[in-house]
Each structure stands twice: as C-alpha cells, then as structure tokens.
Amino acid sequence: MGGIEFLKGHGTQNDFVLLPDPDGRLELTEANVAALCDRRRGLGADGVLRVVRAEALGVESGGEWFMDYRNADGSIAEMCGNGVRVFARYLVESGLAAEGEFVVGTRAGDRPVLVRPDRSVTVHMGPATITGTSVTVVAGRPFSGVAVDVGNPHLVSVTEDDVAGLDLREQPDFDHDVFPSGVNLEFVNRLGEGALRMRVHERGVGETRACGTGTVAAVAAALHLAGADTGSSTVDIPGGRVEVTVERGSSTLSGPAEIVARGELDAVWWAGLDA
Ligand SMILES: N[C@@H](CCC[C@H](N)C(=O)O)C(=O)O
C-alpha cells in the first residue's frame, strides 16, 4: 500500500499539514484529522489544508484550487487566513500555480492572493463585518469585546491589560447564544498608531501563535472602537508580524508563508485511524 503525500508549512508559526488531493479521493474524518494534528500521536499542527480541485468537489470558484481547511480537533471552519498564504505558497512551489496573482476557493468564498518571490503572500480577505458586542471570561476575568465576522466568527477584546500575562491554556468562557457555532477569541493591546499586539485562542484548536482572520478582525475592531472604519496596522503575534488593511467591504492580510517539510504518511497508520 502506498503512503499518502503530505507537506508541513506555517504562516507566522500557525502550522499546517497539507494533503495534496487534486481529485478529491482522500476521506477526511474528525478522527483522522485530529490524530494527524496531535503533536504526540501524529505529525502535529494547528490544522489541515487539503489541496483539492474545486471541480472535484463540485464547488463554484473562480480559481482552480480549493482550500479544504480543518481545525486541529477535526472540526471544519469556513476560512483560515494564514492557511491561505501557506496553501498559495505550496501551489507556487509545486508548479501548480504561477507566482503572482491567482484565486483560491474557500468555504467563505474566493480569496485572491498575490505570491511574491520573497516568500510573502498577500490575501484579499473579503469584508470584516462588525456584528455586535459580547463578553469573554479568562480565568474569572471578564473582557468585553467587539464581534467581527471575517468569514468565520471572532470576538476581539482590546484591553489596557498586557495580553502577555493572560493564561489562555483553558478555553475562555463566551456567550453560546451569541456564538452558537463557537468563536475565535482575540486579546489585543494598542502599541501606538497603526501597531497592535495580539494573542488568540482559536475555536477548534486552543491558543495558537498566529491567526490571520483574527488579525484582520483585531484591526477592524480597533478601528471601530476609535470611530473609524478604514485603516492599516501591523499586528504582532507570538509567531511574528503581519500587515493588515481594512477598507469598506474588503481587507487584506500580508505576511510570510513557508513550506518546511514533505514526506509520506504511513498508509497502514492512516487506514487504522477510522477502524
Ligand atoms: N488560524 C486561522 C483560523 C482557523 C479557523 C478558526 N480556528 C475557526 O474555527 O474559525 C487563520 O489564520 O485565520
């Protein structure tokens, strides 16, 4: 039995296993994705990016390739900003797309990307929509936040407390009536004009070292709280720095993307995961 091709990559240390599956033959289940992403019994990653032709899934897209994204716990999410950058980098490095501009299909819709020779990728992330306010509780402390939809749900708390001191090892509480499908939680400090620092607790993963959609949500929320709806900012996360621009009805995310390894999954191990 032949092995299953994989690659490992990251965008600002938000790390992913990529599974090239052009014709949509691989069966992904919650169990096999969770095992693959486990840092002890699998390869370890914050999520899986299945690289599949949109046509093979019967998905409408202006692009040839569809990013089938799964969180580390096996759940499906609509969108992943760092994942799209890594996905695009892989397509170029493997000769499946030419450097420059092309479109990647996602569950949140088409995302145009620009892949540069210096390994940085800009993604057009679509609208960042303010949907209301809510509260999250970290280790008994409430933080009020701005709810932002970036294709997936976010609650952004801009705080004076140094976010470096937060204990995000446990799932913070949130209002399940406001976020019935769960929510990504961002905690943000303003560092100065056009500069933010952020930590994140991701839905379906836990604390990660970066979240692309989260950084777009953070900039949109910080602008909103300052009475603005357009602007640009750097966002420092534990895994590095990205640049975000929010406009009316659109946004962009720019940052690095790396492919770090490639190999084969053991076919017997993989087949046994669902047994
Ligand atoms: N890390 C991602 C977001 C991945 C999805 C998220 N955990 C969710 O469930 O919505 C990013 O870079 O945007």
From TrEMBL:
EC number: 5.1.1.7
Reactions it catalyzes: (2S,6S)-2,6-diaminopimelate = meso-2,6-diaminopimelate
One Pfam family this sequence matches: DAP_epimerase
Residue numbers annotated as active site: C80, C80 (proton donor), C211 (proton acceptor)
Pathway field: Amino-acid biosynthesis; L-lysine biosynthesis via DAP pathway; DL-2,6-diaminopimelate from LL-2,6-diaminopimelate: step 1/1
Molecular function terms from GO: diaminopimelate epimerase activity
Role this protein plays: Catalyzes the stereoinversion of LL-2,6-diaminopimelate (L,L-DAP) to meso-diaminopimelate (meso-DAP), a precursor of L-lysine and an essential component of the bacterial peptidoglycan.
Entry protein name: Diaminopimelate epimerase
Gene name per UniProt: dapF
